[in-house]
Amino acid sequence: MPADFVEERRKAALEVFESQDTPSWRRSGFWTTSLRGLDLATLEPKRYEPGLPELDLGDDEHSALIVQRGASIVHTDIQDERIVVMPLEQAVEEYEELVCEHFAKRLPYDEGKFPAGTAAFWTGGVFVHVPKNVQVEKPIQIVWLIDEAGTAQWAHTLAVVGQHAECRIREFFLGGDFEGQALHSGAFELYAHPGAQVDLAHYQDWGRGEVYDLSTRRVEVRRDARVKWVPIHLGGRLTKQTLDIITAEPGSDMKHTGLYFTERDEHLDLFTSDKHEAGHTTGDTVWKGALTGESRASYEGLIHIVPKAPEVDTYLQTHSMLLSPKAKGDAIPSLIVEVDNVKASHGGTVGELDPEQIFYMMTRGVSRAEAVRVLVEGYFEEVVQRLDDPGLEELVRRRVAEKLHGAEDQVREFIGERAEAT
Amino acid sequence: MTLEIQNLHVRTEEREILHGVDLVVRRGETHALMGPNGSGKSTLANTLMGNPNYEVTEGRVLLNGEDLTEADPDERARAGLFMAFQYPATIPGVSVANFLRMAMNAGREEPIKVKEFGALLKENMDLLRIDRAFTSRYLNEGFSGGEKKRAEILQLAMLQPEFAVLDETDSGLDIDALRIVADGVNAMLGEERGFLIITHYTRILNYVKPDFVHVLIDGRIVQEGGSELADELEEKGYEWVREEVAARAG
After folding, report:
1. Which of B78, B85, B92 lies closest to A365 in CB terms?
2. pLDDT, average across residues A297-313
3. Exposed end of chain B (fewer CB within 10 Å): N or C?
4. How many structural domains comprise chain B?
5. In chain B, what residues touch A357 (CB-CB under 8 Å)?
6. Which residue of A has its CA nearest to B85?
7. A347 touching B, CB under 8 A?
8. Domain residue limits at B180
9. Model confidence over A254-278: pLDDT tens digits?
């Protein structure tokens, strides 16, 4: 009885949610991620009538598009009948067995107040199923939209990609430039069955509204499957996310490429893990970020190789670039290896633009502002090219350029100060 | 049409490095500025381009009569000044071709046409014997010493500046690479351009004949002459110049 299973989980989760205080997280010794500014009591799930809102998704190509606005799924469009994309509420009824087998398998409801809240309160939700051996060329697009202050959006996405199936999934988190607070508390799970090939992108751009994003995303990669996962963070008042990718069976391979750009008083707190539960698995993680304004960004990336997982070959690199004197960032790679005979390397840097690079470009007639733009775009280019998705690449390049343009004055001032100081 | 350096005093945070340098390069002339390590050669080159690490405390730099002493590096470039760097910066994420196009367009009202750019690039790459694949690599990333120098000369050839300063372009090159670079420079010599070739060694001057040679020691130009001065330096070394100067002073 899967429907019962979901209801029972809601009840148990509600107890956890109500019994726990609003948490804060001490990060990296020199700041804290605190939800003191969030007034949860003023937020509520907002219902909307069906209708497709105006969206900027890079391109309009899709095999399926599903849009949740606030608490309601407002639009579903399926172009490819071989796949299933529908509200998770509906899938609980119509795809009982499949949902029961996968739902919350790797997402326990008792991992904290907000994961419990998500498990208790989610509405609408998204279910994706790409059956065995089905290859889908055009992306499956999932959109979470918050365009009104006072919204509480409790989100759950379950994606199941069958054996030797191939697809691209893009999940967007978009907001308007409204005044006031909103919450997105999200859960995402993807199960890539043996031999599956999945390109997964998460694109977050909450806009100027005060959106708090507290989410947990987990990806399980089974035997000989491959998942390329690209999380992109381009805006949100406060983001606290845990992103875990688990290479669960021999031969599984993951490539994790992340990018973030913070501005104004935004606060980004990311924890990612590359967990190897089986031997003969491979991983490759690269994250790059840039910070302007008074923003804070903390990235911690863990490689975890459990006992009985030999012959793992994995790698993690993270870079953070400060573009303003008041921004603070860190980049913390860490490693837990509980077995011999593996290859695992990691590295992290926090840096600034190199004045010598700027000088060099200026001697070729390029203005300082243009030099900064080109250098920051060049810095991100390695990551952008790994997206391997022209529509998304274009969208990311455009948004980074816009954000840099907005921060031009402070960056110029910062570079000027640094140049004088040397 | 001149590049004029008048009584130039330059300091870094620690100390004064140039103590009053005067030098005039006219269009159509090739000058060599020679000197031992630490004499201030690179300081002069960097100051001419407006490197913010160097402060001009006295004197001026004029280009065609226009005072550029306080100008930003990009203004100097657009006014017609170019420097080939001794140690050029790496520009990750920007291919050689895209960098060249950006630099060329920086000095233009209308962006260069794709076809025109392609033809010009091919012509200059043939001149410098540069492989096609080179242009899609990120500028200077993973380049060998010789490739970096060739990329500098390729920029020179594409940008066609009125005045070019070559800062130790010959150092670190084997003889074949040096010949290719010298051929590239020679192809650009002419009435429309002035060159200031900064070097420690006389080697490059066997391939590119200077009209004038200046010797910089301890931040001052202490000796000047024609190309024969380079030959004399090759034979007798910088110690000989120091002794000459001491004798003159004594």
Report:
1. B78
2. 93
3. C
4. 1
5. 89-91
6. A360
7. no
8. 2-89+162-249
9. 999 999 999 999 999 999 999 999 9
